[in-house]
Amino acid sequence: QVQLVESGGGLVQAGGSLRLSCAASGSIFSINGMGWYRQAPGKERELVADITSGGRINYADSVKGRFTISRDNAENTVYLQMNSVKPDDTAVYYCNADVIDYIGRLFDYWGQGTQVTVSS
User: Fold this and answer.
1) Which of 35, 57, 59, 111 is most exposed, with the fewest beta carbons within 10 Å of its own?
2) Phi, psi dihedrals of residue 36, rounded to the nearest 5°
3) CA distance 24 to 38
4) Is 40 in contact with 60 (CB distance < 8 Å)?
5) Distance CA 54, CA 38 (A)
6) 88: closest CA among 57, 59, 66, 113?
C-alpha cells in the first residue's frame, strides 16, 4: 500500500505565492510520473502539471510561466511552486503518482487533496 500526503495549501491573496508538497511512502520500488491536478467547484478535475522520473515536464496552459513543478526522486516527493496566483486558481489540488511496487506491478495513487483559495 502507498500513501500520498499533501501539504502547503491555504489562503493566499491574488498575486501571492504558495508551495505545495506531496510525499509518497509505503511499498515503493520506483515512481514513474508524478503530478498535480486540481478541481474547482462545479468543474472537472484537470491536470495542472506533471513530471516524469527523468524530469520531463508538462504544464497546463493556464499555469505556464507562473507555476513550477519539481521532484526529489530520493525522497519520493513532488512540489508545486505557485507564483502570481489568481482567483481562478482556487481549487482542491490533488497529488498523483504512478508507483511500481517490489514485484513490478504499476498502480495509480491519489492524495487526499489540499484546498487552495486565492482571494481577490
Assistant:
1) 57
2) -120, 135
3) 18
4) no
5) 23
6) 66
Contact 1, 27 (CB under 8 A): yes
The cell for 60 is: 497546463
- What are the C-alpha distances in Å from 68 to residues 2, 11, 33, 58, 105? 25, 19, 15, 10, 30
Radius of gyration of the chain (CA): 14
Rounded CA gap, 86 and 105, in Å? 39
Cell numbers given for 104: 513490478
Grid cell, residue 56, equals 520531463
pLDDT in tens, the chain (120 residues): 999 999 999 999 999 999 999 999 999 999 999 999 999 999 999 999 999 999 999 999 999 999 999 999 999 999 999 999 999 999 999 999 999 999 999 999 999 999 999 999
